[in-house]
């Protein structure tokens, strides 16, 4: 006779608890990680004069990279804590006494897991790339504001001081220009010009000047000699990338979407393609970690004893940390030995899934044998 399965009402009850705890955990984990970045954002407000609107956009754009970690972590915690509570309050024992097959618990957990998996894949394959573009646009706007030459004051940059009488922003032209350049320790240069133009390259962040009808005074410090040169046109430039709040404006592999990763893969040299190939598979393996967690956490949650209110949180954190340590190890080993990127990326999922399947086989068992005892009994040794 087959064991009865849980009815729909209990499934909905359990799914409701899972979803509620998942949303709370997701909000808490994401908030904690966002707060850790508020120091840098405060610097943008105080020292760069960035608008509050841009700061709020930066907070929003910083969420997709965090969701890569917080989505599976929140699912893991919700599953372990919810099922652990059922076990500690003897509800699991009551279900067993009623002859219920505990594998039915996978139904509500799988429903939530499918939603989290889809959200994780959407986040990794689409939102990450768009959030990276949004962050770059904000930093470019910050650069435009922070690097603008203001008239009537001394504009200070690393090693360079610029004074301009009048600035025509519409035509990017200036008049009454004085530039003091101390970037070379052995030489000091002073430029004066009647007029000139300025341009900021938003790709390289080179601030370029074309000075017209001016003179250059150069002092060689060691030789203590002066030179004076008159010019009709003189090109002067300085790079301002060191002043950016985030110097990594170029997209990193994990920030690219699948199409961008494919283009980068084929454009890269053969010896540099491994990281791009690995990141393509990571776009799938990271969301699918939810499946591995589901197989592992249901039997672990059911078998948990009453060990305190926060034991489920501790268990979930340990599992999550173990997963990412294993991911880091497999990636490092893969790069050293140039292992198949698919296997390297999915290795933690495979290991956790097989462990979960092994635990699921004894889900309805009343015994608390060790893994070695169960293996010995199964193989008749």
Strand segment count? 6
**Mean pLDDT, as a whole number?**
79
- Helix amount, in percent? 55-70%
Largest sheet: 6 strands, antiparallel
Quaternary status: single chain
Number of domains: 2
Cα-atom Rg, whole angstroms? 30 Å
Q: Strand fraction band?
A: 15-25%
C-alpha end-to-end distance: 30 Å
- Sheet with most strands: strand arrangement: 1-2-3-4-5-6
Low-confidence stretches: 368-376
Structural class: alpha+beta
Give, in order, the helices and strands: HHHHHHEEEEEEHHHHHH
Shape descriptor reads elongated
> Helical region count?
12
Can you offer a commentary on this structure?
With 381 residues, the chain is of the alpha+beta class. The protein folds into two domains: 8-143 and 249-378, no CATH class; 154-239, no CATH class. It contains twelve helices and six strands. It has helices spanning 8-35, 38-48, 52-61, 63-88, 91-97, 106-146, 258-267, 273-285, 289-303, 311-337, 341-360, 371-378; strands at 154-157, 160-168, 173-181, 187-200, 206-220, 225-239. A hairpin with a 5-residue loop joins β3 and β4. It is elongated and about 100 Å long. 27% of the residues are buried. Mean pLDDT is 79; it is low at 368-376.
């Amino acid at each position: 006779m087959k064991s009865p399965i849980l009815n729909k009402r209990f499934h909905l009850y359990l799914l409701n608890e899972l979803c509620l705890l998942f949303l709370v955990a997701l909000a808490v984990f994401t908030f904690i990680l966002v707060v850790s970045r508020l120091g840098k954002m405060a610097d943008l407000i105080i020292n760069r004069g960035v608008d509050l609107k841009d700061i709020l956009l930066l907070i929003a754009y910083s969420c997709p990279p965090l969701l890569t970690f917080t989505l599976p972590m929140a699912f893991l915690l919700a599953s372990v804590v919810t099922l652990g509570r059922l076990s500690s309050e003897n509800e699991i024992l009551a279900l067993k006494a009623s002859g219920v097959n505990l594998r039915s618990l996978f139904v509500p957990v799988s429903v939530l897991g499918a939603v989290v998996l889809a959200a994780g894949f959407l986040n990794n394959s689409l939102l990450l790339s768009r959030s990276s573009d949004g962050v770059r646009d904000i930093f470019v706007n910050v650069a435009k504001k922070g690097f603008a030459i203001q008239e009537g004051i001394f504009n200070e940059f690393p090693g360079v001081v610029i004074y301009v009488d009048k600035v025509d922003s519409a035509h990017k032209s200036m008049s009454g220009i004085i530039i003091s350049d101390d970037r070379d320790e052995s030489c000091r240069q002073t430029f004066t010009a009647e007029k000139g133009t300025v341009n900021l390259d938003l790709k390289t962040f080179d601030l370029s000047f074309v000075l017209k009808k001016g003179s250059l005074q150069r002092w060689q410090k060691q030789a203590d000699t002066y030179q004076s040169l008159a010019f009709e046109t003189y090109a002067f430039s300085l790079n301002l990338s060191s002043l950016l709040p985030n110097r990594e404006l170029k997209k990193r592999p994990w920030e690219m979407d699948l199409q961008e990763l494919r283009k980068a893969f084929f454009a890269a040299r053969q010896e540099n393609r491994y990281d791009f190939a690995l990141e393509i598979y990571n776009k799938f393996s990271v969301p699918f970690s939810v499946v591995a967690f589901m197989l592992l956490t249901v039997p672990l949650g059911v078998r948990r004893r009453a060990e305190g209110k926060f034991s489920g949180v501790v268990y979930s954190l340990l599992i999550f940390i173990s997963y990412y340590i294993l991911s880091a190890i497999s990636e490092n080993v893969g790069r050293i030995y140039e292992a198949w990127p698919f296997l390297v990326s999915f290795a933690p999922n495979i290991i956790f899934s097989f462990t979960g399947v092994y635990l699921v086989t004894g889900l309805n068992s009343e015994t608390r044998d060790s893994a070695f005892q169960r293996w010995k009994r199964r193989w008749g040794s």
